[in-house]
C-alpha cells in the first residue's frame, strides 16, 4: 500500500515543483529585464515616467484599460476558436490564455504556449488544440504582415531609406529561396509545422466554421488596432509631436520587423527596442524615449498579464483522465 502511494506523492511533489519553478523563473526574468537593461537604467526609466506625468490617474487608467481590452479580445478569440471542438467558458479561456503566457515566457518565440494550452485538455483534444493555437497565431501574424508591408513601403519612400544594390539583390534572393523551399515543402507529405503535415493543417482550417475564422480575424484586427493606438498614446504622453497615420507607419513597420526576428521571449523587449530605435530615429525621436515606450508596452501587455497568469499556473490541475 505504501509502495503504491509513494510514486503518486513523488509525482505530485515534482508537479508542484515544476509549477513553482515556472512562476519563480518568470518573476526573476521579468525583474531582471526591467531593472538590468544596459541601454535603459531603471532609475532613469522611472524618472522620465514621472517627468512626463505617466503616473497620473488619468494616464495610468487609460493605459490599463487599453491593455485589458487587448487581452479581452485575445481571450475571446481563443474561446471562439476552441468552441469549434469543445465548448469552454470565458473564464476557462482566460485561465488558459494567461496561464500559458506565463508558462511560455522563457521559451523561444513563446513556443511553450502550445504545450501549456494543450495541457488543459484531455489527450483526445490536444492535437486539435495545438492546431487551433497555431491558427490563432497565424491570424494575428497575418494582420501584422498586412499592416506591416504597407507601412514598410511608405516608410522607405517617405523617409528616403537608401539600400545598396547588393543588399536589395541579396534580400530578393533570400525571398526566392524561402519561397522555393516553401513550395517544395508544401508538396511533401512528410513536411511538418508544429508536428503536423501541411496537408493536415489545410484540411483542418477548411473544416473550421467560416464564422470562427472570420471572428478570429476580426478579433486579431481589433487587438492590433488597440495596442498600436496604445503605442501612439505613449508617444503623445512623451511629447512626440506626430500625426496618427505617420505614427502608424512607424509602429506597423516596427511590429513587422520585430515579429520576423526569432527570439527567446525574455529578449523580446530588447529586440523590439533595437528595431524601434532604428525605425523611430528616422523621425527624430530620441533613443531614450522610444526605449522607455517599448519597455512600457512590454510591461503593460505582457508582464502584468503574466503576473496574473502565475496564479493560474500555481492552481493548474491536469484533466481527470490525464491526472498524474
From TrEMBL:
Primary location recorded for the protein, binned into one broad class: membrane
Subcellular location: Cell membrane
Coiled coil spans: none
Alphabetically ordered keywords of this record: Cell membrane, Membrane, Transmembrane, Transmembrane helix
TM segment ranges: 12-31, 54-73, 130-156, 168-186, 214-235, 247-267, 288-314
Presence of the UniProt keyword Transcription regulation in the record: no
Record's bilayer topology term: Multi-pass membrane protein
Keyword Phosphoprotein: no
Pfam families: LPG_synthase_TM (PF03706)
Protein name stated in the entry: Lysylphosphatidylglycerol synthase domain-containing protein
Organism: Lacinutrix iliipiscaria
Amino acid at each position: 500500500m505504501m509502495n503504491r502511494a509513494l510514486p503518486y506523492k513523488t509525482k505530485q511533489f515534482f508537479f508542484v515543483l515544476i509549477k513553482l519553478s515556472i512562476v519563480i523563473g518568470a518573476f526573476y526574468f521579468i525583474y531582471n529585464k526591467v531593472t538590468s537593461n544596459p541601454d535603459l537604467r531603471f532609475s532613469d526609466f522611472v524618472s522620465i515616467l514621472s517627468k512626463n506625468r505617466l503616473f497620473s490617474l488619468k494616464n495610468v487608467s487609460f493605459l490599463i484599460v487599453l491593455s485589458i481590452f487587448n487581452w479581452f479580445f485575445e481571450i475571446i478569440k481563443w474561446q471562439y476558436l476552441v468552441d469549434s471542438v469543445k465548448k469552454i467558458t470565458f473564464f476557462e479561456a482566460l485561465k488558459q490564455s494567461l496561464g500559458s503566457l506565463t508558462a511560455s515566457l522563457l521559451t523561444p518565440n513563446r513556443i511553450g504556449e502550445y504545450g501549456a494550452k494543450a495541457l488543459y485538455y484531455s489527450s483526445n483534444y490536444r492535437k486539435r488544440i495545438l492546431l487551433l493555437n497555431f491558427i490563432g497565431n497565424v491570424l494575428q501574424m497575418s494582420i501584422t504582415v498586412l499592416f506591416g508591408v504597407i507601412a514598410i513601403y511608405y516608410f522607405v519612400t517617405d523617409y528616403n531609406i537608401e539600400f545598396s544594390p547588393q543588399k536589395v539583390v541579396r534580400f530578393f534572393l533570400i525571398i526566392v529561396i524561402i519561397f522555393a523551399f516553401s513550395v517544395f515543402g508544401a508538396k511533401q507529405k512528410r513536411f511538418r509545422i508544429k508536428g503536423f503535415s501541411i496537408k493536415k493543417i489545410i484540411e483542418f482550417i477548411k473544416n473550421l466554421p467560416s464564422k470562427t475564422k472570420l471572428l478570429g480575424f476580426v478579433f486579431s484586427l481589433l487587438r492590433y488596432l488597440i495596442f498600436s493606438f496604445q503605442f501612439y498614446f505613449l508617444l503623445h504622453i512623451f511629447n512626440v509631436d506626430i500625426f496618427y497615420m505617420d505614427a502608424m507607419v512607424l509602429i506597423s513597420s516596427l511590429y513587422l520587423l520585430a515579429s520576423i526576428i526569432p527570439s527567446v521571449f525574455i529578449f523580446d523587449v530588447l529586440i523590439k527596442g533595437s528595431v524601434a530605435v532604428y525605425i523611430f530615429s528616422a523621425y527624430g525621436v530620441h533613443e531614450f524615449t522610444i526605449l522607455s515606450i517599448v519597455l512600457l508596452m512590454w510591461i503593460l501587455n505582457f508582464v502584468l498579464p503574466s503576473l496574473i497568469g502565475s496564479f493560474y499556473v500555481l492552481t493548474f490541475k491536469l484533466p481527470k483522465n490525464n491526472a498524474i
